[in-house]
Specification:
heterotrimer; A: alpha/beta; Rossmann fold; Alpha-Beta Plaits; 6-stranded mixed sheet; 13 helices; 13 strands; about 30% strand; elongated; B: mainly alpha; about 80% helix; membrane (chain B); ABC transporter permease (chain B)
């Protein structure tokens, strides 16, 4: 399993604001990675630096084993689809597709045309006259049909309704299955993509909170509720992320290694146990004071999960 | 370098507007002038020149500003390097400058042969471009395209890197600088010397030499700036 | 997929259920990893992991270049394993809840009989 992207102690500061703070991780080849985090967490900055569109303040990055800055060999293998992408105002939809075809070595024209039909994009329309959703769809068509070995999708769905988003996810999955490549999906619609992503990176306020396999994370965070004493007894085995109590009853969200045995233990303590969804986990980690404290625990988990 | 050619082609995907705007506006300006001149075709000795030819250069200038503000973010989004984008644009503008200058030259020759399109109109053969050497005359048409192109790129880059404040700052500094020089020249009584210097310059230097030097200077500065620009 | 539990386990369970209820008889072919991924809208690597847990425990076997097949004897083996789990998964919580309500084991047995008759 080789790493397509390696990031070491990456820091980015804009006059006084620290957008990224000592971030380190690597991305394994041919996987779908979920880059999660709230707005302004530093996701876009990270992807801009990895695609050489922005410059790091300090730290090392390596993409396909080299630095991407002014590196044609690396850049021609990257597709970066971002919500804020602008197009020259005189171009029409067909022009944008023709431009992408010129530039991407792996471009699949037949696939692109099929996607244009699926998203019902008006081929002859000027980009200035496209709706927000159509602009997003155009970006998605370029991102998928480019078949770039490293593809970044940065919140590519603005203005797209649930149906169109599902069309995107289905085509992403189908095309990825047929043409495996490294995909980074930056999103805060976590519920929608949680089954698609294999690996999770969670960024909050410029720091990396999670770098872990999605499957390893599932069942790692549970919420138990019941009598305070029993809840305390159970939650000793993990890191407490959130607690609410009412009289003698408590509800606590805990992170730890919870297998079937833990479920049995909760039951024998007379507790209700509920496994948290990826979305819940992210919300808990990015809102709890302990979320950042578990940052180092996340790094330790990563070694366990990746092995 | 291959990638630079790709960028040059990329800049041409919307070729209808790339070619259509400059020539469309020039044609419009030309037709208006022809109409005007045929209406007032009385005075035979009256041989004025119009500023209509400038329109094509203005359009190209605007296009070069757009190259930075609009095409640059698009191209970088497609995984093009800054160097390739820059070289591709140089190719793109040089290609247009050469071919457009050739067409303008041809039109100027036709203009002379037809006594100003039959209505005594001097539209393409501007007096200060009247040199006998055909190479110099051709360059006289071509170089302004490149000079304006690089001025546009430079302005676009200042805007891209330092925003509207940078642009305001640049114009303030430029105005203050020029104003200062004018004051200084007046105060020191340098004007006759400056006039003399211009008068002493050979025709080719005014037409080609100095614009070429300025173009090269701007080209170098914009290359250094674009290497650190973010889309 | 149900959230909060590893998806590969859920995939393995779904396949087991289909083997148990006879949807996939022994020596028949099961859907490919990619078919499972597309149908359940999950990552193909996760689907593969689910299938592979069944290959590892001998429930499925691989025919090179053709696909995955149900091993002979798989159904009986699954049933045996599920019966063991049944006590843990269903009987124990039943007894815990019964104790909470003061239902004696004898009373519980008669309740089960009544329900079974009324079915």
């Amino acid at each position: 399993m080789s790493a397509v992207v390696t990031v070491t102690e990456l820091t980015k500061r804009y006059r006084g604001v620290t957008a990224l703070d000592g971030v380190s991780f690597s991305l394994a080849e041919n996987r779908i990675h979920g880059l999660l985090g709230r707005n302004g967490a530093g996701k876009t900055t990270l992807m801009q630096i990895l695609t050489a569109q922005n410059f790091a303040t300090s730290g090392e990055i390596s993409v396909f084993g080299q630095h991407p800055y002014e590196n044609e060999q690396v850049l021609s293998r990257i597709s970066f689809i971002k919500e804020s992408q602008t197009y020259p105002s005189h171009l029409r939809v067909t022009h944008v597709l023709r431009a992408a075809r010129l530039v991407y070595p792996g471009w699949d024209e037949e696939f692109a045309q099929r996607l244009v039909d699926v998203f019902q994009l008006p081929r002859g329309r000027n980009v200035r006259k496209l709706s927000r959703g159509m602009l997003s769809a155009l970006g998605i068509v370029v991102g998928l049909a480019s078949r770039a070995p490293l593809t970044f999708f940065d919140e590519p769905y603005l203005g797209l309704d649930a149906v169109a988003r599902q069309i995107f996810y289905d085509h992403l999955l189908a095309d990825y299955t047929e043409h495996p490549r490294t995909i980074v999906l930056s999103t805060h619609l976590i519920d929608e993509v949680s089954d698609l992503i294999e690996h999770v990176l969670l960024i909050d306020r410029g720091r990396l909170l999670l770098d872990v396999e999605a499957e390893a994370l599932r069942g790692q965070v549970v919420t138990v509720s019941g009598p305070v004493a029993a809840v305390d007894e159970f939650s000793r085995t993990g890191t407490e992320l959130h607690r609410a109590s009412l009289g003698g009853t408590a509800r606590v969200t805990v992170r730890g290694d919870f297998g079937p045995a833990a479920h049995d233990r909760a039951r024998s303590l007379g507790l209700d146990l509920e496994a948290s969804s990826l979305q819940d986990i992210v919300v808990r980690l990015t809102t709890s004071q302990n979320g950042h404290a578990t940052g180092s625990a996340a790094a330790a988990d990563k070694k366990e999960a990746v092995r | 370098m291959n990638r630079a050619f790709t960028v040059a082609r990329l800049q041409f995907v919307g070729w209808r507007s790339v070619v259509g705007w400059p020539w469309g506006i020039l044609a419009l300006s030309f037709l208006i002038n022809v109409a005007l001149f045929s209406a007032m075709n009385e005075a035979d000795d009256f041989e004025p020149s119009t500023g209509g030819l400038m329109s094509i250069y203005v359009v190209m200038f605007v296009a070069s500003v757009n190259a930075i503000t609009q095409d640059f973010p698009f191209a970088l989004g497609l995984g093009v390097s800054r160097r390739s984008f820059y070289l591709g644009n140089v190719l793109h503008f040089a290609g247009q400058a050469i071919s457009y200058a050739a067409v303008l030259y041809l039109l100027a020759v036709i203009e002379e042969a037809t006594d100003g399109w039959g209505v005594n109109l001097t539209f393409f053969g501007l007096p200060f471009l009247m040199v006998d050497n055909p190479v110099l005359r051709f360059l006289g048409f071509a170089l302004p395209f490149l000079l304006l192109g690089f001025i546009g790129i430079a302005i676009g880059l200042v805007f891209k890197r330092w925003g509207i404040n940078g642009l305001l700052m640049l114009s303030t500094v430029a105005l203050a600088g020029i104003g200062g020089l004018v004051v200084l020249a007046t105060w020191q009584g340098w004007w006759s010397a400056i006039g003399g210097w211009f008068a002493d310059q050979p025709g080719w230097a005014m037409l080609v030499g100095w614009p070429a030097l300025l173009t090269l200077l701007l080209a170098g500065l914009s290359y250094l700036t674009i290497r650190r620009a973010t889309p | 997929m149900e959230d909060g539990r590893p998806i590969f386990l859920q995939i393995a369970e779904l396949l087991e259920n289909s083997i148990l209820d006879g949807t996939f008889p022994e020596e028949s072919q099961v859907p490919s990893t990619n078919e499972l991924a597309a149908f359940h809208r999950i990552n193909p690597a996760t689907a593969a992991k689910g299938v592979n847990t069944l290959v590892d425990d001998g429930t499925l076997y691989k025919k090179r270049g053709i696909g995955m097949f149900v091993s002979s004897g798989a159904r009986a083996k699954l049933r045996g394993r599920r019966r063991d789990e049944f006590a843990r998964q269903y009987v124990r919580p039943l007894l815990t809840e019964a104790r909470k309500l003061g239902i004696e084991p004898a009373e519980l047995k008669s309740m089960i009989d009544t329900w079974e008759e009324g079915r």
